[in-house]
Amino acid sequence: MSKKEDFSDIKILLTEMLEPSNKGEQNDTIEDEIAAGNSTTRNNNKQIDMNLAIKEIIDDRKIQIKNALERIENGSYGTCLSCGKAIVRERLEAIPEAIFCIDCQKKKERQAESMINLRDTFFPDQIN
Ligand SMILES: [Zn+2]
Question: Distance, CA 109 to ligand 1 centroid (Å)?
Fold first, then answer.
């Protein structure tokens, strides 16, 4: 907490992610982004499940964005929630709602992967 960083540009970024501005064109909503990423991955009979899953992802992301805005307000933004180090500016500009630094994010992803491997090993019937 040596010097206070200015996150006002990131705040604008986050606000626009949450509420796309009324400029007419709205190509950059989270909904479109996620839907586009998923559109080619599943066939039709899974569509309803996918839509639900997408909605959950969107809701999750909105919560993350709101949390990020709150952290900007209370001054804790830009600090890794896991190790307490500053998250690099580049990362915040790419993923404004990031709460972990790159190192911790990688660790979490590895943990998640090993959890999935464990689940597949012990509960193979639950794979869908
Ligand atoms: Zn960290």
Answer: 13
Please indicate, yes or no, if residue 72 is contained in any of the structural domains: yes
Q: Which domain holds residue 60?
A: 8-77
Question: 12 C-alpha vs ligand 1 centroid, how far in Å?
Answer: 24
Each residue's pLDDT tens digit, 82-120 = 999 999 999 999 999 999 999 999 999 999 999 989 888
How remote is the CA of residue 108 from the centroid of ligand 1, in Å? 10
Domain count, the chain: 1
Q: Mapping DSSP to helix (H, G, I), strand (E, B) and coil, where does residue 127 land?
A: coil
CA 68 – ligand 1 centroid, Å: 16
- Look at residue 34 and tell me if it is in a domain: yes
pTM: 0.65
Residue 24 backbone zone (phi > 0: left; psi -120 to 50: alpha; other: beta):
left
Query: Position 121: which residue type?
Result: T
